[in-house]
User: What shape does this take?
Amino acid sequence: MTAILDVRDLKIYYKTPVGYVKAVDGVSFDVKEGEVFGIAGESGCGKSTLVHSLILRKPPMVHMGGEALFKGRDLMKLSKEEERRIKYTELSIIPQYAMNALNPTKKIKDIVWDLAREHGAEDRREVEKLLRERLRMVKLSEKVADMYPVELSGGMRQRATMVVSTLMNPDLLIADEVTSALDVTTQRVVLELLHYFMAEGIVKSIIFVTHDLALLDKIADRVMILYAGKVAEIGPTEEIINSPGHPYTSLLLESLPKIGVHYKQTKLRGIPGYPISLLNPPSGCRFYPRCPYGMEICQHVEPKLSAVDDGHLVACHLHGGESNE
Ligand code: SF4
Ligand code: MG
Assistant: This one.
């Protein structure tokens, strides 16, 4: 499969009065055409920063190095005009708080028309026809087109936002924590819709960002686990879930409630400690302060990603990978 997005050694920092926060610090991965690529980790691991830097980069976010080749073009080098042009048409994002993302003062059809016109559409009737068709596809009434976002329930607004984000058939759709504020039933609807967008060829690939590994099992072909701005592990979802290679992934998985077991009988094992400060991250493995298996070497030598299986890479000295130093 060809890669639609190829990210190499990307560094995205935040400029603050006390120095740079190294939110994304040398991350590499690719997203293939036709796949759902999951990105997971605790809040603050850099996953939102990473995906937002691809299309919505603005101060205090600073690109410090590396590249993100999208269909051959480096997203880090696009002009504001080029960025505006590809947004929605080639690369689209459903934001984290999708339910509140739509302009409350405009009807859905006007929001969509503004967007389409900005991208060169001329025939308003055509655009509205497509909107109504897509609303029906996601099992919303066509009447939603004539409504204001505030007139819709949370779940309906979520679906309407998904229709708006995908109306121009973007090649790559980024879904950033789109399910986190939703109840389980609405979550399921959102996952079904994403599958449907792929199956219908409305989008070619999806990056699905979440802190919930259990969801990735339902949607992602491959998963990347981020910890403190670095890739901890990357590989096929099934393998990551069934035989995680990084201690952090194992702990994340252990902290999930078990299906079919009453919550009172499950001992949720949180991960002890807190993520390190990304202002002055220590040398060596960033997970060392919280890792139950930390060794001498982990304190001062940064583990490099190395293959433990076909397409399964882990950055941990337990796997005897070479070091970065
Ligand atoms: Fe733990 Fe060392 Fe592996 Fe880091 S490199 S996750 S500290 S064992
Ligand atoms: Mg986030």
